[in-house]
Amino acid sequence: MNLDLQKQLDMARNMIKQLTDKWRKKGEFMVRDWVHLRLQPYRKIIVALRWNIKLNPCYFGSNKIIWKLGVITYKLEDWK
């Protein structure tokens, strides 16, 4: 009985993974690519003060990647 339960859990995990991977984007960029920087909502207030937070842009500028630090970490040209 325990093996059947483990098998069903594995099948459910695989099905959920397939469904989520279908909508995910691969976020790999190369050096010298241009990217738009997306900040979390609490960081947007610091970057651009506006009278209405809901109307703040989701992306800030077009920045050039100058160095790849890790798997998903990049250093941008205009961002300090």
Number of strands: 3
- Please state the structural category: alpha+beta
Q: What's the mean pLDDT score? A: 80
Assign a percent range to the helix content.
25-40%
Report how far the terminal alpha carbons are from each other.
Answer: 57 Å
- Helix-strand sequence: HEHEE
Q: Work out the strand percent.
A: 15-25%
Shape: elongated
Largest sheet: 3 strands, antiparallel
**Strand order in the largest sheet:** 1-2-3
| Backbone CA Rg | 20 Å
Q: Runs with pLDDT <50, length 5+? A: none
The count of domains is: 1
Number of helical segments with 4 or more residues:
2
Describe this structure in words.
This protein has 80 residues and is of the alpha+beta class. The protein has one domain. The chain is 36% helix and 22% strand. It has helices at residues 2-23, 41-47; strands at 34-38, 59-68, 74-76. A three-stranded antiparallel β-sheet has the order 1-2-3, with no helix packed on it. The termini are far apart. The mean pLDDT is 80.
Characteristic key phrases:
single chain, about 80 residues, alpha+beta, 3-stranded antiparallel beta sheet, about 20% strand, elongated
Give a nutshell description of this structure.
This protein has 80 residues and is of the alpha+beta class. Helices cover 36% and strands 22% of the residues. The protein has a three-stranded antiparallel beta sheet, with no helix packed on it.
Spell out the blueprint of helices and strands.
Blueprint: H1 2-23, E1 34-38, H2 41-47, E2 59-68, E3 74-76
Antiparallel strand pairs: 1-2, 2-3
